[in-house]
Design a protein that fits this description.
Elements lengths: L3 E6 L2 E6 L3 E2 L3 E3 L2 E8 L1 E6 L2 E5 L4 E4 L3 E8 L6 E8 L1 H10 L14 E4 L2 H8 L2 H4 L7 H18 L3 H5 L10 H8 L6 H7 L4 H12 L3 H18 L5 H4 L8 H12 L7
Antiparallel strand pairs: 1-2, 2-10, 3-9, 4-9, 5-8, 5-10, 6-7, 6-9, 8-11
Length: about 270
């Protein structure tokens, strides 16, 4: 069954599935506040794996890559509510409330979990909008977003340095970034933005660093990892090809045979 994504009102999305569903790699361009109503979300990101259990609040920082697998609860349903906290809304909020950060957030974690009763009750209050018992006017939708920001700031002081940091991304180490994120099947444009570069600058720096194109390097890197998993970990391609960024098995098998001169079963 296909995953169901329903836009309740501007910036609020309700996701619902009834069987295990592996999502595509996602580039998260804006901060995202979410609540796991039922089931579990298993999130794979550059820093590792994170399990988001039922009744958990999560704040996902902007400008990162995440791959998710959604697991329904024993009752048979997976439900997740997410609110986008975009730059324009946060800038307006900071202006109106005279918020200026004194320093950048120094923590390394990208996902934050808060057992906060106020935030949980906030998401529960959105239930009438999910089942369409109540319609949200643009003004009410704006107020609900602002309420979410208020509750976040109340729950953790560090969130101020995260939400209101409007500085542009600086160039980061391209080689290190690519080696950490090669398995994510996202566009070159997204990779460029994540490394603090324009598309042309990314391609130029990539050629200097790897002496090849992003497409060629990514394919070779993924195939090398696949070869390792098959030969040394005895894994089957069907179990890992999606996790390595391949869209389908036939493309993987053809690329593997072309690179190594043998089929996966001949290793």
């Amino acid at each position: 069954m296909e995953a169901k994504h329903q836009i309740i009102f501007d910036k609020l999305v309700y996701s619902c599935v009834f069987e295990k569903h592996r999502g595509n790699e996602e580039f998260i361009p804006e901060h995202l506040l979410g609540f796991q109503l039922s089931g579990e979300t298993h999130a794979f990101h550059a820093d590792g794996n994170t399990i988001i259990p039922e009744n958990t609040i999560v704040l996902v920082r902007k400008n990162q890559l995440i791959q998710t697998t959604k697991y329904p609860a024993k009752s048979g349903k997976y439900q997740f509510l997410s609110i986008t906290l975009d730059k324009e809304t946060l800038q307006q909020y900071a202006l109106e409330n005279k918020i200026v950060i004194d320093k950048k957030y120094a923590g390394k974690q990208r996902l934050f979990f808060e057992a906060d009763d106020f935030l949980q009750n906030y998401f529960i209050s959105l239930a009438p909008y999910i089942n369409r018992k109540k319609e949200a006017t643009p003004r009410l939708a704006d107020l609900k977003i602002r309420e979410a920001i208020e509750l976040l700031l109340q729950s953790n002081r560090d969130f101020k340095r995260i939400l209101f940091d409007f500085s542009e991304a600086h160039k980061i180490d391209l080689e290190e970034f690519m080696k950490q994120n090669y398995m994510f099947n996202v566009s070159v444009e997204s990779l460029a933005k994540l490394t603090g570069r324009s598309l042309s600058g990314f391609k130029r720096d990539f050629a200097k660093t790897f002496n090849t194109t992003p497409k060629q390097w990514l394919l070779a890197k993924r195939l090398d990892e696949a070869h390792y998993l098959i030969k040394h970990k005895k894994q089957k391609p069907a179990d890992f090809y999606l996790g390595l960024g391949f869209e389908n098995l036939s493309h993987f098998y053809a690329s593997f045979k072309q690179k190594f001169g043998v089929t996966t079963s001949e290793i």
